[in-house]
Design a protein that fits this description.
This protein has 229 residues and is an alpha+beta fold. It has two helices and 14 strands. Helix 1 packs antiparallel against helix 2.
Length: 229
């Protein structure tokens, strides 16, 4: 009798483990790959900047910003009143309620929030703005990352940041994220770049997970056969 119960519980446990294993955390990737204001695009291959929002815990989203596509002395602007790197949030949520905890990389010297408060040239308004000190030793330069955990709103997840700017100029598009890049080319020009959010495609269970399912079903089947004897 105990063997029957154990086999049944084993099969159920494996089946449940399958359910938990195939539950994927939400991930949002934004590749900034378009110069939208008629300025000078960065010299390297696009995407020049990449932002990834990922669920890492309940009500906690990790944002990883990367400048891996920038080259030479290029860097993200953000000094004083200049636009740095902007993002949006679901308009039903309050940007001002967000908390940002620095994790690693190049720490921004200022993070500002406000509903449609930050205008990217020729594009529209954003709710969240990261700014870095432009001094050579502090600027958010080529090949760097900046990582933050974002909290402060119950139920917050990565896809809450998959919203585009509003009031964009016709022809320039409305972007999920935009940034101002400085020191492009030998003359030190600048360009405004933007990108759209991209959700990952539907996850397909890995072979190991499928084996777990098969084992779980086999355990349940074995229990039923023994009960019939």
């Amino acid at each position: 009798m105990k063997a029957k119960k154990f086999t049944t519980l084993y099969g159920v446990a494996l089946a449940l483990s399958l359910g938990f294993s195939t539950t994927q955390a939400a991930v949002l990737t934004i590749n900034l790959n378009t110069e939208f204001s008629g300025g000078t695009p960065p010299a390297g291959a696009a995407p020049w900047l990449t932002a990834t929002f990922e669920d890492i815990a309940l009500d906690t989203v990790r944002l990883t910003m990367s400048t891996s596509g920038l080259t030479g002395g290029e860097f993200v602007d953000g000094s004083g009143a200049n636009f740095g790197w902007g993002f949006n949030i679901d308009p039903l949520l309050s940007a001002s309620a967000l908390n940002f905890t620095f994790v690693s990389g190049n720490d921004a010297n200022l993070i500002s929030t406000g509903v449609d408060s930050f205008k990217a040239d020729g594009d529209g308004f954003f709710d969240i703005l990261f700014s870095w000190d432009p001094a050579p030793s502090s600027r958010f330069a080529a090949g760097q990352t900046s990582v933050y955990n974002i909290t402060g709103i119950a139920g917050l997840d990565a896809l809450d940041f998959n919203f585009n700017s509003v009031n964009g100029v016709p022809g320039n598009g409305n972007w999920t994220s935009a940034a101002h890049v400085q020191n492009i080319g030998p003359n030190g020009e600048s360009g405004w770049i933007g990108g759209l959010g991209r959700r990952p495609e539907q996850e397909i269970p890995e072979p190991g997970i499928l084996l777990l399912l098969a084992a779980g079903l086999a355990g349940l089947g074995l229990s039923r056969r023994r009960s019939a004897v």
